[in-house]
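Slide 14.
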Amino acid sequence: MAGEREHIREIEQVLSGGQSARDHVVVQSWLRCVDTHRLDPTRPTEAYIVPDTQLREHREQSERLIAIARSGLETLFRQVTGQNYVLLLANAKGVTVDFLGDPLFMDQLRTAGLYLGSEWSESRTGTCGVGSCIVTGEAMTIHQTDHFDTTHTPLSCTAAPIFDTNGELAAVLDISLLRSPQPKVSQNLALHLVTASARRIELANLMAQMHSEWVLRFSRSPEFLDVDPEAAIALDASGRILGTTHGGALLLAQAGGVDWRLSPSPVGQPISRYLDMSIDDLPSLTRGRPTEERLVFGRSGSALFAHAIEPQPTIGRRALVEAVPKPISELSGGDPAMAALQVRAAKLARTTIPILIHGETGSGKEYLARAIHECSQRGGPFVAINCAAIPEHLIESELFGHTAGAFTGATARGRKGLIEGANGGTLFLDEIGDMPYPLQSRLLRVIAERELIPVGGTQPLQVDIKIISASHHDLRKLVAEGRFREDLFYRLNAASLTLPALRERTDFEWLLDRLLDQHARLAGRPARLSPAARLALIRHRWPGNIRELANAIDLAVTLCDDETIQPTDLPDFAPPHLAPSTPPAPLVALRAPSPEDERTALLDALAISGWNISEAARRLGVDRTTVHRRMKRLRLEAPN
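Slide 15: predicted structure.
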C-alpha cells in the first residue's frame, strides 16, 4: 500500500508540472492518461479481456497478419525460453490476437492481462507497453512503476510497432514479465529482440503481399544483406514505390536527405526521388553479382547495399496464391463453399499453424486433414487418432508414450507414443472435444514448446509436428461449460476450416459419381445407377454425410444385379427419428419418374411458391441446393 501511495504521489507531482526521472515517453503518457483519457491513478482497474465474440472478430480481421507473424513469434519465444516471458501480438486497437506463454502459469497470466483477448489500449489501461507504443509508433519498455495503473506495476512490458506496407500501424509485438529485476536496463536485450522480430515480420508481410513485384532489400553491411536485411521496399514496373517496411521508409528519407517526420509517405513516389537509380538498374542488383558490389547511392551521398528480387511470374496477381494442389483440389467438384475452403487449406498446408476443422460427423474431416498433409511437403508420417474411440485410461500412453516401468507390465525400453511417432509429419486429433481434461494441458505444452515428456519420464523430447484437430462438437460451448481448456482452444484454433454438410453442397452428383466409380473398381465389377436410384439418393438428406453416402454406395454395388443399382439395392433411408418435419415426396421411388413428370412437379412447386426457392424446397421436402441442381439439369429459369 505504501508503494501504491508513493506511485500516485509521483504521478500527481508530474501532473502539477514537477520534474521526474522517468523517460520522456512515460511522462507524456501519464499526462495523456489524465488529460485525454480521464483516468484516475487512485482507482486501479483489473485487466480487461474482451468478450469471446469480439475476440473472434478481432482475430478474423487480423488473420493474415497472425499467420505471417506466427513463425516470428515462435522463433522469439524459443530465444527467451526459460526466462518466463510471455509474448503478445496485439492489433492496432490494443487487443491481443495471439500469444505464447508457459502453460503452467496460464491462470496468473490471465489475471494479469497477459493473455489472449486482453485489451491494452492506453485509453483503457493507462501507460503500458502496447498502448503507449500504439500512440507513439515507437518501440519502448514500460517497466514496473512506469505503468500508470497500480494494478500493472509488477509487470515489465517491452513493445515494438509493426507497420503495414503503406506505413500504417498494423499491430504491436510485446514481450512481458509478471516479475522482473528492478533495473529497467535489465530489459534492454528484450527491447532489441522484440524490435528485430517486428522488423522481420514487416519484411515477411511485404514479401507476401508484393511477390509479383520487384522488391529491393537494404543493409548497411554486405554480410547481412541476403540473410537478415534491415529494410525493404516494393516497386512497380515504372519504378514507383508500392510499399515499404517502416525501416525502408526511414532509409529512403535519409538517403534522400529529407526529414522523414515532415516528408510525405514514399508510397507512390518514384525511386529516383531518393536513390540515384531507376527501375532499369534492378537486374544488376540481383544475386548474380557479389554482395559487396551491389551498392546504391542516395541523393544525399549515402551508400547502401541492396538486393533486388525479381517478380514471380504469375498469370494475374493472385494466381500463385490461389493455386490449389491436386490432393486438395480433388475434394470437390466445384461447390462454392468447398472452393473457398480449398484455397484456404492450400495456403495453410505448408505452414506450421495449427488447424481446427469443424464439420458434422462424416463430412470428410480426416480426408481433408490427409490432403493438407500430402500438400505440406513434410517428410514424416500422417498419424491419426480418434480421441473418442480410445478408452480414457489408455489415451495418455497412446498419445504421449511411456518409459519403462511407467505402468505394470511395461517393456524394458518403454513405448513410443503417437505424438513422437508423428515427428516430422502431421498429427490429426479427431474428436478433440472428447480428450480428457487433465491431458489437455500436456497437449498444450507440446504445441507451445514443441516438446513432450513421456508418461513416467523426466527428460523432454523435441518434436516437430503439424497439429490438425477436428470436432463435431461446439468447442466454444465446451469451453464455457469448463470441459475444454480455453487456452488450448485458441492454440488449436489458430486457423479454422469448416466443411459444409453434404446436404448443403451443390456438387452432390459429382461426388456421387466419383464414389460409385471408386467402389465399383474396388469390387472389380462395373456398376451404374438407375434413374430411380439416383433420384432416391438425391432426395435423401444425408444426416451421416459423406460416410453415409459411401456406405450406401458400397452396399448397393454389392447387392445390385445386372450392373444396375435399383432402389431396392439401397439402404432404408427413412428411420422415423430422421424424417423431415414436412411431408416430403417418397424417399425411394418404385419406378423412375419421366423427365416430363419431374419437370412438371418442380414447375408446380415453383409456381405455387411464387418462384421462392426456399418455399419450393420445403414443399418438395428437399433443400435449396437440390432445387437449384434440378433447375439447372432441367434447364428451368425464373421468369423475369
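Speaker note: The CA atoms of residues 329 and 636 lie 30 Å apart.
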